[in-house]
Amino acid sequence: MKYTCSIAMGPIDQLIELAKTAEEVGFDAIALPDSLFYMEKAAADYPYTPDGSRMWDENTPWVDPLIAAAAMGAVTSTLRFYTNVMKLGSRHPLLLARQVGSVANLTNNRFGFGVGIGWAPEEFEWCGMPYRRRGARVDEMIEVIKLVLAGGMVEFHGEFYDFGRLQMSPAPSQPVPIYVGGHTDVALRRAARISDGWTSAMMTAGQLAETIGKLSALRAEYGRADQPFEIQAVCIDKFGVDGHRELAEIGVTDNIVIPWVFDGLGFDAPLEEKKDSLKRFADTYIHSGWQDR
């Protein structure tokens, strides 16, 4: 099982040093969250908390995940980065294709593109994108991005996007992995049908096991059961070596963690304390050899 460190809601001036330390102690990747802005009044509930409340406020720091990946990639050599997840619905696929391709090239193929639709109507409407039919439009966006990133002269004529022959150079020298987030049946079908993996929000191990079972059945339905597939999970009720072993047994391939939160520290804890948490976590889980037993 891989280990990814999430840097959600932390001070952005800590990111470079946290990336360096994460690589030094043996983490596989950094998960990069996405938030465009904080609206004072939200038209929809946040879908990943029991009461629909947001876990952040107007002063919580965020950084564009693609810019963060490029910056942290410049000071590391083995650490991977992926968006967790980028909200496609409020953006344009051709602009995103240029940005994603640039990050993939600048990091020497150490970037994965985690995608979702987005939950807030304001993020769509205030960025000039329609909220209606967002799922179908995002499906077409993913198709456009994959087509353009594959390289060469391409054209596209779809329901939502239409363009003549164009080419973006240089194309990444390896395919950029696409990971799909979301817990709904539609999102799971999207992940099983077109992606290289699925990303959870906060879930219990029981919920994860049930969802992984659904994904396995859907991938078989789409004839993709034998293809590699990542399960990137944020589990809220399995801790310690035994807990991590249980996650591996149910099919989690990438455990997304925030070590300083496990140590009782806040998102805005001092940098040195976060670095110490990374080292302790690595000693306990990454280097302890539990996966070999």
Q: Gyration radius, to the nearest Å?
A: 19 Å
- Class by helix and strand content? alpha/beta
The CATH topology is given as: TIM Barrel
Please trace the helix and strand order, writing H or E for each element.
EHEHEEHEHHEEEHEHEHEHH
Question: Alpha-carbon distance between the termini?
Answer: 13 Å
How many strand segments?
Answer: 11
The amount of beta strand, in percent, is: 15-25%
Overall domain count: 1
- Annotated CATH architecture: Alpha-Beta Barrel
Quick check: average pLDDT? 96
Q: Which strand order do you get reading across the main beta sheet?
A: 1-2-3-5-8-9-10-11
CATH superfamily: Luciferase-like domain
Total of DSSP H or I helical runs spanning 4+ residues? 10
Helix content: 25-40%
Q: Which term fits the overall shape?
A: globular
The CATH class name reads: Alpha Beta
Keywords: Flavoprotein, FMN, Monooxygenase, Oxidoreductase
Domain Luciferase-like: 10-231
Organism: Mycobacterium shimoidei
InterPro entries: Lucif-like_OxRdtase_Rv2161c, Luciferase-like_dom, Luciferase-like_sf, SsuD_RutA_monooxygenase
